[in-house]
Recover the amino acids of this structure.
């Protein structure tokens, strides 16, 4: 009962620069790399709906999209490392919230 809020990932082939037939691969990569974790919050209680058995590196998600092509240029390796660090920190925080 009551209102609900859904935060849904909606990849955009044109804006994200990827072939339309890669949509499911991008969504799966987002979840498997923990860029887009699947969880819910009900009455302030966090529940993880899916936890990857083997969390994949964020690079696998980024390389599927042309909008991130600049991070793969020589000298920009630090960008991928920073993105990975941020994803890891947010994932660990979510795990803490789910197990609290």
């Amino acid at each position: 009962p009551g209102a609900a809020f859904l935060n849904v990932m909606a990849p955009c082939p044109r804006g994200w620069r990827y072939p339309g037939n890669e949509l499911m691969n991008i969504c799966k990569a987002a979840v498997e790399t923990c860029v887009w974790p699947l969880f819910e919050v009900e009455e302030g209680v966090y529940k993880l709906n899916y936890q990857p058995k083997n969390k994949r590196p964020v690079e696998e998600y980024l390389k599927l999209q042309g909008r991130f092509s600049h991070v793969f240029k020589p000298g920009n390796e630090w960008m991928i490392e920073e993105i990975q660090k941020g994803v890891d920190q947010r994932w660990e925080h979510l795990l803490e919230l789910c197990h609290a």
In short: The longest strand covers residues 39-42. The radius of gyration is 15 Å. The chain has four helices and two strands. The chain has a mean pLDDT of 96.
